[in-house]
Amino acid sequence: MEYFATLYFFTGKMGAGKSTTAKKIAKDKNAVLLSEDEMLEQFYPNQIKTFDDYLTYSNRIKPFIKNHVQNLLSVGTNVVMDFPGNTQKQRKWLSNIPSEIHVSHKLIYLNISDETCLERLKQRNIENPERANFDTLETFNYISQYFEEPNEFEGLNILEITQ
Hints:
Layout lengths: L5 E6 L6 H11 L3 E4 H8 L7 H24 L4 E6 L3 H12 L4 E8 L2 H14 L9 H8 L13 E5 L1
Parallel strand pairs: 1-3, 1-4, 2-3, 4-5
């Protein structure tokens, strides 16, 4: 019996709307939504204070996540991963998950201006004050320097969304 499922994942700068879009796609596609932020908070509560902490803990959960997502996809369940795919290395890890088991993927590229992203971060800090120490202009600038736009040479199925 063949099962057809799709893995949806995202690229876009901080504040581009990745989490909001992930929730919408999960609902529209009747998919399982996996949020890296939520998982990290559950597995490592109050332990992520710096960007380096984030990298450390994020890498710790990846083997489990990969196996779990492949199991879901292999039985025909669509999966939306609210995990950053902002560098070629991150996108390669994400795209290998479905390619190893021969199911499809869709990279959602939120190509949103820096100004709009920063406005959204300000609003997010009002709505979620616990994020105010992390969602700063300094963090945005630091993380944005590593952002790599997706390109055709990566072999990805890309849906670009602009403002």
